[in-house]
Specification:
Strand content: 15-25%
Number of helices: 13
Number of strands: 12
Strand order of the largest sheet: 3-2-1-4-5-6
CATH architecture of the largest domain: 3-Layer(aba) Sandwich
Distance between the termini: 50 Å
CATH class of the largest domain: Alpha Beta
Helix content: 40-55%
CATH topology of the largest domain: Rossmann fold
Mean pLDDT: 93
Largest sheet: 6 strands, parallel
């Protein structure tokens, strides 16, 4: 049985879907799967699923003075033609916030059945999006699965994956089976990795708070070094952040890591003794690799993308954004809270 799976999403979202992808690969043979992902994720997709076919979407970032939709139509046209010519038994989309072009990708292949979560953008979209969604609901071959509206055992995004895969395979998928899994697995190490920046400043924990927490934790656990890491284009900001740490953590070397490819970054996470981060792709990679981690979460998407943990060693500290707002949530997660979570992640049985 052949399957086309669309996941035109960001890094962390793709990592979260790796559990679902592995289930499909085991059920139908990986070489029967075609993955549709953004170009920047293609190398990671090929590493994790080497026998699957990959269709790359050269998705364009929003640029001032440019029409992003027009840019994407132009750049993704060759990929869309490949999708129009593709044939498969099932087409599965795991993206719950589909813009018009992504919905068009979903309906383009020639398949017997299509499965996707309901589109959470329909209420916010224009006439074309609503019309396309109504048409999809009316086609007998389309199955649109209601998106979970509250967190249960799993975050809502993972529960959505679980429900769709259960329908696709005709069996109930256990919650644990849908958890993200990367081929790199935690091997332990003496260095701590700190990834302090997310896609939004409002989700970041302040350097002063990280410093206060690390002053407590370094004295107790004595890591060999702290390696500050981030994405392309963050080099200058990371250097400034690391300089502030160095000024206070004189007993522990602090270095800034050069930019790495996604597949290399997964291996980098696998040899860390601990990952410290916020709600970003590094958090999901740590969970998928099994590395102990402390994730300071602003609470912006509480219950949607986290918290979850495959082995109990990834601790999510959720800020009270509801009552304290986009700035005040940080005060609800103290450096002492982070220090205690570090102890629990490193020594889960004793908590010390």
């Amino acid at each position: 049985m052949s399957v086309i799976l669309l996941k035109p999403d960001e890094i962390g979202d793709f990592v979260m879907a790796t559990g679902a992808l592995r289930i499909l690969g085991q059920a139908h043979s990986e070489d029967k799967i075609t993955l549709v992902v953004k170009s920047e994720l293609a190398s990671l997709a090929r590493r994790e699923f080497p026998r699957a076919s990959i269709i790359e979407l050269p998705w364009q970032a929003r640029k001032k003075g440019r029409n992003q939709a027009a840019d994407n139509i132009y750049h993704c046209f060759p990929a869309w033609r490949r999708l129009c010519a593709a044939r498969a038994d099932d087409c599965i989309c795991l993206r719950s916030k589909r813009n018009f072009l992504q919905s068009l990708f979903f309906v383009s292949p020639r398949v017997a059945r299509r499965l996707a979560p309901e589109n959470l953008l329909v209420g916010k979209g224009g006439f074309r999006r609503r019309l396309l969604e109504r048409l999809m609901h009316s086609w007998p071959s389309h199955v649109l699965v209601p998106y979970p509206h509250s967190r249960g055992v799993l975050p809502m995004e993972l529960e959505s994956h679980r429900q769709i895969l259960s329908l696709a395979l005709g069996r109930e998928i256990p919650a644990r089976e849908i958890l993200p899994r990367l081929s790199a697995q935690w091997r332990g190490g003496n260095d701590w990795v700190l990834c302090p920046f997310s896609s939004r400043q409002s989700k970041d924990y302040h350097v002063e708070q990280w410093t206060s927490a690390l002053e407590l934790a370094v004295a107790r656990h004595k890591p060999r070094s702290i390696r500050v890491a981030g994405g392309p284009g963050q080099g200058e900001t990371l250097e400034t952040f690391a300089a502030s740490l160095r000024a206070n953590l004189t007993s522990c070397p602090v270095s800034v890591e050069p930019p790495r490819s996604l597949e290399d970054f997964a291996e980098f996470i696998a040899v860390a003794g601990l990952v410290l981060t916020v709600d970003t792709s590094a958090a999901h990679m740590a969970c998928a690799v099994g590395t102990p981690a402390v994730i300071v979460d602003s609470g912006l998407h509480f219950g949607v993308y986290g918290p979850y943990s495959p082995n109990g060693r990834q601790l999510w500290l959720i800020g009270d954004r509801v009552s304290r707002g986009p700035k005040g949530w940080r005060e609800t997660i103290t450096p002492s809270d982070v220090d205690a979570a570090i102890a629990q992640a490193l020594h889960p049985l004793s908590g010390t």
